[in-house]
Amino acid sequence: MPVIDMSTLKPVGEFGSKAWGEACVECAIKMLEAANLPSSINWAFSEDYTHPPARLMEGGRTHAGYYLMVKNGIVSGGDGILEEARLIPGFHAKLSWASICNQSGALYGREGGKQRSAEEQVLFDAIEAYVGRENPLGFEINKEGKPSLMLDPVGPWPTEVGKAVGEGGEEGNGLHNIAATLQTDSPEYADLPVSDLRVPIFADMTDQQKAEFVKICGIQM
Q1: CATH number at residue 69
Q2: Is 144:154 a contact under the CB 8 Å cutoff?
Q3: Residue 127 included in any domain
Q4: Residues near 162 by beta carbon (within 8 Å), at least 6 away in sequence
Q5: Which pLDDT belongs to residue 207?
Q6: 9, 32, 169, 211: most buried by Cβ count inside 10 Å?
Q7: Could you give phi then psi for residue 43, rounded to 5 degrees?
């Protein structure tokens, strides 16, 4: 039985906000601690959302995002980006807030995740064609010399961690769906054309919408 009862959750804040991130971390820590992770596990997770709206950076926040860290089997996490966690191999992502905000509020399982990724690639390709240069979203260059939203050091998901945060994912539970349930809508997407998975459809935007969307993604024309 999943650790988190989805019926008890309600939206607490926008994607990337302090309230949302802390709620995600609270749930994730409960899920991971319930798994009784072995002391041999050293792994970390962080997502750093760049160019967030100013309203999300209240209280002197320097990063919109959150982190989880498993060190010698002990779980911790919090709002922002902790450098200690960033140095541990794991899943570390850094990308524009606007490029993934809306679709992060969609509920889905494994196949839905694949569909979201495919639709996001269409979005990113359309933005690149519109801007007229490579890597307009400013992904960092990895050790292979390629732009990537994933930051080094990359490390595989330990089996125990993946099982804990993914439990019930096909039935609407799991960390992604928990985070999506905790997320409130952001006003930037109110009038944008989006897919069933909430991914913005760049080709269907008006000229003004395209210009505004590129701007909130932090792209300089």
Answers
A1: 3.30.1050
A2: no
A3: no
A4: none
A5: 98
A6: 32
A7: -160, 150
Residue type, 124: F
- Tokens, residue 84: 């200690």
pLDDT at 58: 87
Facing residues of 146 across strands? none
Distance CA 132, CA 135 (A): 10
- Structural domain including 89 reads 6-111+136-186
Which pLDDT score, from 0 to 100, does residue 37 have?
A: 97
- Please give the single-letter amino acid code of residue 150: M
Return the HEC string of the chain.
CCCCCHHHCCCCEECCCHHHHHHHHHHHHHHHHHCCCCCCCCEEEEEEEECCCHHHCHHHCCCEEEEEEEECCEEEEEECCCHHHHCCCEEEEEEEHHHHCHHHHCCCCHHHHHHHHHHHHHHHHHHHHHHCCCCCCCCEECCCCCEECECCCECCCCHHHHHHHHCCHHHCCHHHHHHHHHEECCHHHCCCCECCCCCECHHHCCHHHHHHHHHHCCCCC
Q: How many angstroms separate the CA atoms of 22 and 2, rounded?
A: 20
Is residue 196 situated within a structural domain?
no
Paired tokens of 133: 């240069």
